């Protein structure tokens, strides 16, 4: 039985439909990321699970009980917000204990629980400070502590790390992963950061304009995107796309006429046969191989227009007949702006998308 379930949920603000007949089942103990661009409905979805936003149509279940009309405090879900939402006039200890004191827990129980949570989140030394006396990362840990102390059935996180600087974000990401490993509580985590989703979640739900675009493990989404939206959204630098014409079909393999006059054979991923001859080819920067210009086995020749040396890899922006393609090479690549190179596609790691943007 799923631990959190949305059945055919629709959300409308006035006559604007934000979520459109969405169904989703989240397994107990899993870490699920809701990933998508700004405005696609991630927060709305999470707030409907928390009970902070009314569901226009459809149902929500937590631990087998329908909670569609149950008030937030009685759902067994605790939410951590992007802006922390701490009480500024209360100390860390009082902030963490707040929900317990509202629920009428004894002073003894409060102290015990706050002590446990503070140890887990390394806040022991900070219990008597107020939020203004804490760093961003510490405030975020207090916000998590406040959720933790309630011993919820489900944790709901809405972009909890986006106010932190890059280093702290990586550190807090590890702490959240550890927290999930030790608590094994169901977590649903909203983010527009694909790296966060890929590293934290065991399952990612990609949302596009209020509709689920694809659900899968991080590597399923990376290696087998079901459509162009997921292909473009997952991976950094993003996948390259260009148009090609289908010249023929040999079993599962399509022969393509590439821009610039050469041909390639790419194996289908089991999608429907395309209606039109024109397809979009998608290939990730690390799946374009560099070679000498004019080589017999290359698919494009191109001129390097930008070189970005990142240390562990080099990104080349190469102008080809297929447009500008980004190529990821080794860190110590000896290639300069203006050089001409040959590029070959890895046919096993290239993707074809039809005019409906679905994978072929
Ligand atoms: N109270 C409201 N009234 C009308 N429209 C709203 C309201 N709240 C949200 N929306 C709209 O619903 C859509 C989804 O909003 P939501 O906050 O869920 O997006 P999001 O995916 O969380 O985006 P972000 O990554 O920017 O936080 C947006 O187009 C937004 O403008
Ligand atoms: Mg949001």
TrEMBL record:
Transmembrane segments: none
A single Gene Ontology CC term: maltose transport complex
GO molecular function: ABC-type maltose transporter activity; ATP binding; ATP hydrolysis activity
Domain named ABC transporter: residues: 4-234
InterPro entries in the cross-refs: AAA+_ATPase (IPR003593), ABC_transporter-like_ATP-bd (IPR003439), ABC_transporter-like_CS (IPR017871), ABC_transpr_MalK-like (IPR015855), ABC_transpr_MalK/UgpC-like (IPR047641), Mo/tungstate-bd_C_term_dom (IPR008995), NA-bd_OB-fold (IPR012340), P-loop_NTPase (IPR027417)
Top-level taxon: Bacteria
UniProt entry keywords in alphabetical sequence: ATP-binding, Nucleotide-binding, Transport
Family of this protein: Belongs to the ABC transporter superfamily.
Protein known as: ABC transporter ATP-binding protein
């Amino acid at each position: 039985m799923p631990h959190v379930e949305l059945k055919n949920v629709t959300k409308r603000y006035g006559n604007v439909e934000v979520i459109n007949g969405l169904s989703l089942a989240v397994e107990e103990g899993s870490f699920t990321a809701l990933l998508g661009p700004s405005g696609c409905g991630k927060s709305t979805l999470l707030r409907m699970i928390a009970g902070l936003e009314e569901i226009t149509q459809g149902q929500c279940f937590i631990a087998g009980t329908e909670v569609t009309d149950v008030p937030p405090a009685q759902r067994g879900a605790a939410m951590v917000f992007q802006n922390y939402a701490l009480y500024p006039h209360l100390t860390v200890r009082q902030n963490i204990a707040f929900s317990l004191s509202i629920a009428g827990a004894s002073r003894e129980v409060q102290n015990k629980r706050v002590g446990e949570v503070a140890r887990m989140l390394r806040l022991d030394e900070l219990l008597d400070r107020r939020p203004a006396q804490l760093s961003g990362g510490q405030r975020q840990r207090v916000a998590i502590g406040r959720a933790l102390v309630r011993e919820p059935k489900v944790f709901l996180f809405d972009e909890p790390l986006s106010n932190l600087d890059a280093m702290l974000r990586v550190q807090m990401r590890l702490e959240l992963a550890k927290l999930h490993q030790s608590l094994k509580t169901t977590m649903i985590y909203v983010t527009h950061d694909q790296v966060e989703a890929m590293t934290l979640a065991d399952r990612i739900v990609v949302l596009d304009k209020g509709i689920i675009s694809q659900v899968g493990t991080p590597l399923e989404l990376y290696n087998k995107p079901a459509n162009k939206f997921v292909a473009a959204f997952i991976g950094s630098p993003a996948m390259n796309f260009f148009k090609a014409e289908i010249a023929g079909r040999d079993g599962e393999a399509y022969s393509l006429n590439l821009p610039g006059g050469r041909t390639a054979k790419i194996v289908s991923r089991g999608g429907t046969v395309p209606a039109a001859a024109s397809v979009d080819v998608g290939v990730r920067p690390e799946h374009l191989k560099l070679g000498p210009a004019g080589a017999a086995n290359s698919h494009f020749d191109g001129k390097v227009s930008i070189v970005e040396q990142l240390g562990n890899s080099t990104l080349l922006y190469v102008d080809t007949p297929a447009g500008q393609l980004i190529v990821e090479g080794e860190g110590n690549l000896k290639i300069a702006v203006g050089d001409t190179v040959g590029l070959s596609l890895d046919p096993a790691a290239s993707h074809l998308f039809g005019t409906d943007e679905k994978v072929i």
